[in-house]
Amino acid sequence: MRAAVVVNRSWDFKFHLEKIAVMDLEIPSPGRGEVLVRVYASNINPVDHKIVELAGWSWTYPHKLGYDVAGVVQSVGVGCTRLKATSLMEAPTTAGTYAQYAVVSESILGVKPESISMLEAGAMPMVALTGLESLTWAAGGSQFGKNATVLVLGGSGGTGHMGIQLAKAMGASWIITTCSETHVDFVRQLGADQVIDYHKQNYYDVLLPESVDVVYDCVGLNGTGDHAFNIIKKHGSFVTLLQGAKASISTRLQRPDVHEYAPNCVGTCSQHQRIDTVASFVKEGKLTVHIDQVFGLEDIVKAFNQSLAGHTTGKVALQILGNESEILV
Ligand SMILES: NC(=O)c1ccc[n+]([C@@H]2O[C@H](COP(=O)([O-])OP(=O)(O)OC[C@H]3O[C@@H](n4cnc5c(N)ncnc54)[C@H](OP(=O)(O)O)[C@@H]3O)[C@@H](O)[C@H]2O)c1
Q1: Average pLDDT over residues 87-100
Q2: Which of 13, 125, 241, 278 is the most exposed place for a label (fewest CB within 10 A)?
């Protein structure tokens, strides 16, 4: 099979595009509780390059990349009880989905809603599951309370555009977001009620102190927590996707009432029950994925380049197998 890999270790432990290649590898075999998926689509998440710096020292090479997948189960390993041949979307822990076949734990695969394409299904899992985890925590359950105001920082990117829609689907009554001017119409269409162009204004200057219930930070700049705590209402919540954006100790001492959470959703948020929750939002027409650009597997370096530029509108998708008429379900 063809697979995108990091060819060998970087001794500076950084991600280097010139170390990414597409090569022929053996089709893997599913072990206990695993299934072999014929991969139709995936996408680029920032973790797909950050992981090289975080874990690349411990890998054997060539190392396969890619977390999200949409595809069809080709065969099942010993001990699988839920799945046979079907179409799927999910976010696996073990990675290796930038390939024509991937082995994935059965427990984290969910059934793809019929209303979306394989390409869309392959672009959604990690960003949707991250939003679901973050906003469910912030809401203290599946729905926000009455008149909840949610600020999504970075509403036009992968996690941000899911965050706006999920906040709306979960009953938030006023959604504010930050983005560049070019993305204002995009985030409004997703459900944002108020948009702040971060190039022109700081959200913490525009918004009044103690005026929002939840800040969902999908950008993760240092110092964000300190700014965000000030605009969060009493007993409100700050969720950031980057540890470095958490509030300083002095801010937390001044505002002990604010709840703070920096989830690590890579892998840990992947459970088939959560995929089912995401799928139900999709089926109800409350959640769609916006695909900015589509690349083939052989163009993986171009796809990474697009994501690394940091201004993706929604997602950069990977089309690995093209013919949707082959899909059985
Ligand atoms: N903790 C976890 O479990 C977890 C899970 C998923 C992702 N993450 C992390 O979360 C971050 C976001 O991921 P992503 O997939 O959403 O990335 P992405 O799709 O690459 O996000 C790109 C977006 O960021 C926006 N942006 C950049 N600087 C901004 C700023 N100062 N203010 C507002 N928006 C800004 C850009 O908006 P404009 O183009 O409009 O300027 C662009 O649309 C990454 O660092 C990723 O590693 C963490």
Answers
A1: 76
A2: 13
